[in-house]
């Protein structure tokens, strides 16, 4: 084989991870808004002696830390995409960041449970006017952040069910990256969780102020914590699937097997497909046939919509054909 001919089969393993995604820009913008709000609330709490403002500012800081992880993950993924030390590129940094942020979110929910139980056992006086002001301010800021992030169907319709059930259905979409981006979804979850706590807080504080139902304040804390735990659990499971190289969903495996076996006398004997980044997969396919095709012909059979970016095909000529040839 001539030396120059090998270049046809040499390719990089960036798989588009070196490109700046819109999700990265949106997450950065939300991170800046969150940090600025945190600084204003902490500063106002110290100047005006408001514990409510100070506490909400520190709470906002926990989400700012999680968003900072997301921003760092996007930048690291993009700048190290061509690093040869990563066998299949840096796509899994995305899942690692999502797993870390989801874990932080679960811990945040546990803190909410601890504080709520403490308020049940030892009720404290609530300065309703200040508390309502802080809750409304937080809700407005989180509303702005959710508008910036957009969500892209993370919790709408079918995708919402996928988040809970930890499945990823194969269907046509214009932006595959955002739908499978664990880093983006974790950032969205943190902002959504913050917005949820603000909504529940406003509801509980209004009832407490005008109807004297102060028990609703810690109760809503428990309700919010339960929902946050449910969301973070789904994120932890789906990102862990990527980190542990679990098999791709059955829909992906079935589509590959059907495509290969559509050619007469071709059977898939071994199939391994795993995620190497948001919405992209690597695959190893072993095929048994009495008349094996050229590897390029098998590649052409695979549907493009599956997001297969690195495929290795291994062929075996079945014994029946060998005996006939002899």
Notes on the structure:
The protein has 326 residues and is mainly alpha-helical. It has two domains: 8-243, Up-down Bundle (Alpha-lytic protease prodomain-like), CATH 1.20.1510; 250-325, Cation efflux protein, cytoplasmic domain (Alpha-Beta Plaits, 2-Layer Sandwich). Helices cover 63% and strands 10% of the residues. A three-stranded mixed β-sheet has the order 1-2-3. Helix 2 runs antiparallel to helix 3, helix 3 (91-121) packs parallel to helix 7 (182-211) and helix 7 (182-211) runs antiparallel to helix 8. The protein is elongated and about 80 Å long. The two termini are 30 Å apart. The model is unreliable at 155-178 and 321-326 (pLDDT under 50).
CATH 4th-level superfamily of the largest domain: Cation efflux protein transmembrane domain
Please give the share of residues in helix.
55-70%
**Largest pleated sheet:** 3 strands, mixed
Quickly give the structural class.
mainly alpha
């Amino acid at each position: 084989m001539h030396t120059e001919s090998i270049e046809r089969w040499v390719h990089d393993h960036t798989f588009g991870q070196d490109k700046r995604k819109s999700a990265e820009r949106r997450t950065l913008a939300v991170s800046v808004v969150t940090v600025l709000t945190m600084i204003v609330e902490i500063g106002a709490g110290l100047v005006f002696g408001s514990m409510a403002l100070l506490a909400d500012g520190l709470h906002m800081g926990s989400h700012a830390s999680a968003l900072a992880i997301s921003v760092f993950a996007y930048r690291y993924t993009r700048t190290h995409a061509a690093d040869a030390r990563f066998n299949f590129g840096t796509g899994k940094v995305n899942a690692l960041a999502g797993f870390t942020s989801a874990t932080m979110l679960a811990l945040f929910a546990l803190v909410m449970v601890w504080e709520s139980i403490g308020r049940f056992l030892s009720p404290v006086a609530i300065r309703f006017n200040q508390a309502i002001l802080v809750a409304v301010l937080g809700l407005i800021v989180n509303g702005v952040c959710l508008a910036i992030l957009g969500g892209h169907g993370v919790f709408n319709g079918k995708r919402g069910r996928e988040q809970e059930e930890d499945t990823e259905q194969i269907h046509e979409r214009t932006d595959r990256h955002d739908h499978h981006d664990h880093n983006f979804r974790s950032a969205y979850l943190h902002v959504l969780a913050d917005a949820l706590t603000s909504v529940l807080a406003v509801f509980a504080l209004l009832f407490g102020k005008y109807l004297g139902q102060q028990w609703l304040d810690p109760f809503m804390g428990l309700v919010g914590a339960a929902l946050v735990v449910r969301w973070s659990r789904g994120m932890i499971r789906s990102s862990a699937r990527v980190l542990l190289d679990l098999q791709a969903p059955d829909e992906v495996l079935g589509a590959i097997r059907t495509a290969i076996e559509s050619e007469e006398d071709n059977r898939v004997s071994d199939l391994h497909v795993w995620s190497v980044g948001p919405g992209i997969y690597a695959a190893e396919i072993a095929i048994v046939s009495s008349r094996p095709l050229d590897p390029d012909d098998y590649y052409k059979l695979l549907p493009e919509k599956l997001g297969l970016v690195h495929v290795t095909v291994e062929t075996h000529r079945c014994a029946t054909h060998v005996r006939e040839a002899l």
